[in-house]
Structure formats: C-alpha cells, structure tokens
Write a structure and sequence with these properties.
alpha/beta, 6-stranded parallel sheet, 41% helix, single chain, 8-stranded mixed sheet
Length: 448
Amino acid sequence: MTNVKPKVFLIVDNPLRDLQGLALLSYQMAHRGFEAYLVPMYEQFVASAIIRPDIIILNYARFANTPYCLWCKSMGIKLMVLDTEGGVFDNIQNDFVDRIPRSLAQHVDRYITWGDVQRKAIIDQGLFAEDEIVATGCPRYDFCAQPWRKALEKKGKGKFILINMRYGLLFPRYAKDTVSEIEKPFRKEIVSIHWCWRFINSMKGCVSIFESIEYLTKAFPDLEIIVRPHPFERDDIYKIVFEDMPNVKVIREGFSLEWINSALAVIQKECSTAVESKLLNVPVLSINWLGETFTGSEATYKVAHPINNPQELIDIIRALREGRADIKNHEIDTMIYDYFGALDGQASERVCSEVESVLASEKKNIPINFSVRFFAWNNIIKTFIRKFLGRKIIQWIRKLKGGRDNSSKYFSKEWVERIMVRIKNADPDGKPVEITSSVFRFFIKIVT
C-alpha cells in the first residue's frame, strides 16, 4: 500500500523578503515526509483547486485573504498563519492586531507568531485561545544562526555601506498612492492625527537618510554605497535622486540578510534590519539629526548606534574603514527575543512540529455561501486568462489602468534551486530534495 504524503502549501507573498525562509521551511518539511508546495500568493486559488492540500500556511490573516480562507476551509483544508510581517511594528495594535478580522480568526486552526510580544497582543484582543497561538520564531531568521548562516551568499565586491530604506508609505510599490497603500478598512484613518504624524515623520526620516548619503559620497568618493529599497517600495525615486553619484548603487535584488552579512556597516531609520544587523554582528547606525519624533518599535530604535550630526557619521565610517572603530550595538537581547523568538536556528523545525500537531487534530469544515464561491471561481478564471495572455501583456494592461507592476511577486524554479543548493551545503547531513514546477508555474513542489 502506497504511503500518501500529507500536502502542505506555503504561501509566498513577497519573494525578496519571504522566499529564503520559506524555502528552508519546505526543505525541513520535505524531510519530515511532507509534500511541500511554494505557492505565489496570486496563484493560491488555482493551486488550491488543483492540489487540494491538507493544510495551508498562510502569510497573514486579513480582510484581503478572507474569501480565500473561507473557500479553503469549506473544502476541509486546515489553515495555519505564519505571519511574514510579524516582527516589529510602529504600532502593534493598529498595524498588526486590529488587522486580523475576528470573523476569520475563528476559522484559523493555529496562529504562529515570531515572539511572545505578538502572541500576548493577539490573546489580549481575544482573537485566539492560548492553545491556538504559538510563538516559534520566524524561519528566515534561522539564517542568523548556525548551521544555516553558512547558506548566506556573499554580496558585493568588497566592503560597502548598506543603506536600508523603509518608506513604502511615501513610495508604495503595489499601490497607486499613499492612501491606497493603507488597507481598505483602515483608509479612513489617513486623515487621523496618527497617520499624519507617521507620514510627516517618514518624510523627515527619508530626508535625513538622503542627507547622510550625500555627506558620505563627498567624504568618501571611493566608498561603495548600496541603497536597498524595501520590498514594498518603489525604487525609481532613489535612482533619480542618486543618478549623479557614481559610488551609489540602488540594488533591490538579493535577500536582506545576505547584504547585511556582507556590509561594513548598515545605516537605517527605525527599520527591522537594525535588529537583523545586530543578529549578524554588523554595526548598525541610526540617523537622528533632524529631530523627528520616534514612532517605531523600541527594539529597532534601541539596538542601533545613534548618529546626531553629519561629522559624527563621517568620523565613525572613517574609523570603521581603518579598523579602529569600537561600535557595539546596544545589548537588548531579552527585548529581541521577546519580539523575534529564540533565534537559535530552529524556528523552521518548530513550525514543522506545529503543522504535524494541527494535522493530527479534528477537521472542522464550514458551509460556504454563494458570494465566496463566486469570488473563488472568478479569481481562478482570471488567473487562467492571465496565463493565456502572458505576463507582459497583463502588465501592459495594468499599466494602462494605472496599476503597478506585480511581476516581482513571482519566483522561478531556478531561484528556488539556487537557494536549496546553499541550504543543502550548509546542512551537516546534506540531505537532497527533488524540486519540480507545475505548468504555468502555479506552484513549486519540494519532496524527498
């Protein structure tokens, strides 16, 4: 009798941010006897109709994917959430907890958070019982610990300064404008004091980063400066601003951990990459000289070395280049663990264990109404039309309608294979996996 492997979907929202960690998770799952499928978020309806997985690991639980979740639940598919944005937030209540619909939460079998801070916030909101939500850490931060740190690819030709941007509110990549960037149920809040405050401080923070780059290019014309836009941020603005600075390059490609691990230092402003730099023992600086009000997470703010004026920035970079700087990122390990979990390289293993636990539990089906069924099949039909017309034609149509290019939401089999080779080489056991892609690239399957 053939032993049927349970099928698990891993929904990939933004490959530049999520693919590396989810590839590691799929690698671990394959070696636990699962059929693991990496599924682009825009293909999740079709992929689910074709494969009918036993369980789906969602990238989030929000209003945007509620119809998909209800449709899958009606087919008896179990749902887990591994929140890909679940580390640090400017405002954990407004930016995280309030965006989980109560009507959807009751249908999620298990919610996975990075750390105890997020877990407690969700429990306090009454969205899940304590045994339905577990803090495991995030699989992509397994690459900050051994053995998986060995899988990080070397970036750049030499030591460079890395500038990490985070101004998607100002320059949204997947929305027409700032108002559209805010999720629909929250767009009315753009006129509130809270959002006006955030918008103004984002502008001031962006200006301070621009100024720091200008000072560095004048002081160190031979120093390479890499500007990395946020995965949800347009890069054309930065290319225009820095086009006359030959030692500044705007590069989106590659995973953030790999660029950080290869950098001489990281400059940012209230960005989660400050914590990532800390984890990889790379000096991280925060530009503070415009006096903007602190609006971000305490973890990102306190972990960085503050720079209060341009001369201080120049002196520190010169000392780093000469190997005489003694910049120690602030020791707030307890706070980092509260937000990010154990950071021991075992988060992917813990998520696998939670998947096994959910699959062993009782299945709960729900009735489905006509509107959800119509939404699902309408999405499936549109997906096949997109595939028939081709991505270039679809992107041309989107541009005519004023929409943004979403081609970056997809990934290739070759990209997954390159990641898997590095994971396998870093694994002390060196276990191979088999990688196949479906027709039209609806999903990529990983098995042993």
